[in-house]
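User: Could you walk me through two proteins back to back? I'd like the raw sequence and the structure tokens for each, with a short line separating them so I can tell where one ends and the next begins.

Assistant: Of course. Protein one, sequence then structure:
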Amino acid sequence: MKRILALLLVLSAVLALAACSKSPAVTKDEGTTLVYGSGDYTRINPAMDEHGEINVLLFSGLTAHNGSNEVVAGLAESWEYDESACTYTFHLRDGVKWHDGEPFTAADVKFTIEAIMDPENGSENAPNFEDVEEITVPDDKTVVFRLSAPNVAFLDYMTMAILPQHLLQGEDMQESDFFRHPVGTGPYKLESWDAGQSIVLVKNEDYYLGAPKIDRIIFKIVTDDNAQALQLKSGEIDLALLDPKNAKDFTDKEGYTCYDMTTADYRGILFNFWNDYWTENRDLIPAICYGIDRQAIIDSVLLGQGMAAYSPLQRNIYNDSNVEHYDYDPEKAKTILEDAGCTMSENGFYERNGKEIGFVISVMAGEQDRIDIAQAAAQQLRDIGINCTVDIPAQMDWGGQMACLIGWGSPFDADDHTYKVFGTDKGANYSGYSNAAVDSYLKLARETSDPEQRRQYYAKFQEALAADPAYAFICYIDANYVAVDGLQGIAADTVLGHHGVGIFWNVQEWTIEK
């Protein structure tokens, strides 16, 4: 648990948003420049952290995802799978170079995946590779993975950014200065990083798919949605992911294009099962789930953009729509509370064994939609007699909090963001959730390639999760990107992931005219 909590503190720092946006105007140098309104970064470390939008610009994996989220060739031009030996053999492209000019080799692949697998490094991505028993490098252009059991999602997971062994050998994979001066094989390379202000990238002329068309991309640190909207209007930035209320101001506004893109990104209340409150009151979580009016939150907070959530797989082919939805039913919520021995006190909140029923939802500062969703859900729960409040701490206390407004979701294989999120003691299980049936069905589902069998296992997983909820699922959100009209090449139909990540998948093809 200590390792997981330490990792969470680092992760929250990576994604932490500053209290204000006082970045000076960014100078657009000669050539074409795209200025993107970005949250802040304290490091760029794709092996340890998952959600940095900037990762795909700087780094490449052995495989990649196309606009339909299908696996395609990346740094590996081809591969074979020996089912009898449970072995993947990847053949690497010729002539790929790191941004510093050094050759990319199979040894870099072995180094990266072994670093992720090393428990001492505390990577949240480690569960993706826990079946890897051996990695061998027959030559500089070939790398072989032998697995202990089948993992149907393995090719998806080989989209993992590969890191340079020659710069990281012997370094601390959490603390190395490399992660403030990253060197990759991606379409762009780091030119400069002004902490809290901007990260400037320039095109990689040696990129294996060809040099990008836009010369420079500036990640301008603008950590507030309102400020990003103002800077879009003033021409200081060219592209930003906005909350629905700010994005609405750009609908039909001359000079801008709105991309209201579908995501697999859901929001919900994570219950911290390391907190003693849930040891005593875990049986009341279904009442919380029934007490949330999801559609009302979608209508008021998301302006109708999104859909009610009941499962982590609603954007996946293996979703089971017959699972318990926990549709809004305040009377049923009250019945559950009263059947569990709760009684209404004079102040309008339930009590059990002399203790008030209520909890605090913690929300990271900066993401206005999460704050608004949490506050709306808390009010609905107060209305049924659960004293729920919202806290926006300067720094998240992952070990001590009672609950938080979580976001997760993946548009890729169903194993992604289920196995490592809900599996006992897995790298991204930040709630301490443990359910033997959930563990069993997730393992069976990742080890079978038969689609119908996988469908049955994932249906059983969703049933077990609904019977013993890890989260109170609330909604899936759309990603409201707004761009200047001169920016061309965004694939509007791509289903995006958590934090709206994925829009840059084909960035080397983009153009911009101003």
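----
Protein two, same layout:
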Amino acid sequence: MNHKKLWIALSLVVGISFAVLLFYGNQIYQKAPPVPEQVVDESGNVLFTGSNIKDGQNVWQSMGGQEVGTVWGHGAYVAPDWTADYLHREAQYLLNKWAGGDFESQSSEQKALLERRLQIFLRKNTYDEATKTLTLAAERIEAFEHNKAHYTSLFMNDPALDKLRSDYAIPKNAIKDESRMEKMAQFFFWASWACVTERPGESITYTHNWPNDAQIGNVPTGDLVIWTGFSIIMLLIGIGILVFVQARTQQEEVLKPVNDPLMNQVITPSMRATKKYFWIVNILILAQVMLGILTAHYGVEGDALYGIDIASFLPYSITRTWHVQIAIFWIASAWLATGLYIAPSLSGRDPKFQKLGVNVLFVALLIVVAGSLIGQWFGVMQKLGLVENFWFGHQGYEYVDLGRFWQLLLVIGLFLWLTLMIRPIVPIIKKGTSERGLLTLFLISCFAIAFFYAAGLMWGRTTNLAIAEYWRWWVVHLWVEGFFEVFATVVAAFLFTRMGLLRIKSATNNVLFATIIFLSGGILGTFHHLYFTGTPTGVMALGATFSALEVVPLVLIGFEAFHNYRMSKSTEWLADYKWPIYFLLSVAFWNFLGAGIFGFIINPPIALYYMQGLNTTPVHGHAALFGVYGMLGIGLMLFVLRSMYRKQKWNDKLIKFTFWTLNAGLLLMVVVSLLPVGLMQTFASVNHGMWYARSAEFMQQPVVNVFKWSRIIGDTVFGIGTLTLFLFVYQLTLKKNKSTN
């Protein structure tokens, strides 16, 4: 296709998609579950206020938030989903009360009558928009007090709940203050109220009848079924069109330069200064994996490590927070450092103060990493006030747990990185060389990485959870899963063109086409995370449709892998780049399996209705985050080290062992443990309800524990791979100091 037409098509796709994304964002603002200014009894007496609910949300966040169970299905997987758990406990209290003490002893006809009474009672919307007041019947207030007593015993220090607390991996006195505990219970009530209360004028709840629990009337809606079918139709149409286009498009010719064009590349001082970034990357990988092993162990021994009491000072909520956040930090650092290395290589010289900028950014990133991790510990240990926790502690939102102050510093750091990328690249673009189009797209992706992380600043301390979730997924999906993907595609193409393996013009066209295809589904595909977070039905329709299109380019991922493999064999000197290219091959594999297969399993509305918050989600998360972005980060690091240590002989046996142990370990982790547990939970969710699939009763069954313990196989293999990667980088850089290069 014509180069200019591709740019126009890309502009239209991005412009229209973001217009729709923002339009429905405004709809979410208008139709989010309301936080009442007052919650009153039927006599008008105030029970608690909206500010109490918002403070309770902050208490939940300070404890770890989405790192301690889930709310609306988003978060961690050891403890329950608190909304599903609350509703089930509320329902059982009311049914037993109405049955005279024992609901289960009633006849089937009487049970059906009582359950219907329960549904009418709970699903009626008693919120008054004019007065912004929510009125509760006396029996519902009783149920609230009953649940509050349970959660107070659980999150504080009732010895009677020691076993349950251990099963949930919650330390004693996770909440140390009774007033905080009361407010968190009020937040749990509000979040659960939104799950069972029907929207004004509609017969569905604010969360589209999620979580599934037939006893309270939360069953799949017609929209779930219709849009699931439509998403599958769109997937088939998209695959058909892309296969047709692929068949008509001539495969890009692989060139065969006699010598490595990078052999004599000038390495500037700023390029050499990126070496310390890769050392930090390797240290963070080790830390992340060790924390991941500890986090997984908490699933079977929730209050200790083989009998050693570490939960009192390093609880599950902290290890999981650090495990997830460090993954983002090291992957981003590897990618940012690759950009910093590539940009000055274009001209072979540094702009003024480029090295200083690289060093300042490095220090800034270290401050953000250390400061945010320390702040999160202080927050979870309840050593900060609610305001201080928001700014310096734990925000409680998965992937963006770091306090707002650290978020701001990171945004500033990303824009500093963008500046360091612009300065050496813009002069090359102005020269009008053949690389202009590819470099322009490279800078656009760099801008997107800096800009879209800033979406994490769009919510405040007391923002409605539904609205905070909307912006959080801008960061998680558009930043982590979206424009990092564009950046990766551009960088890979650019590396191959610099090595003389691809023609710049055809590579640019291919990257533009791939970006159009990816963003066509990727931007509006963000909505598939928001089906059940208090959003209007249109969000489900768009999310189902466009998240299916996200899978379309992954169907042909084998062509990309084969193409890269052909390039790795095209000329003799490319043997030096075998393992960096092999890591790119593994990215293609994990893209298809982790993002494609495991992603689409949970994406359709009817599937996610039963699976949201189960171990099917970390199946996709591990395979896509480490399998795609992690392996790519390692591959990019190896490309840079291959260039930086061009005359150094590599320890091929060690890096080969690293490659296979990382990939085999990740696969074993997923298919031997996470996937079987997730599928068992799915059956339990369909047959009994979300509350049961996440309950200690189900998760502590012997057969489930066998699969949870079996994760040690994959974790061990994977952990060995990270150790050998560290050893490889250590040997390479140590020998470099003794070489003549």
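The first strand starts at residue 38 and ends at 41.

Let me know if you want the two compared in more detail.
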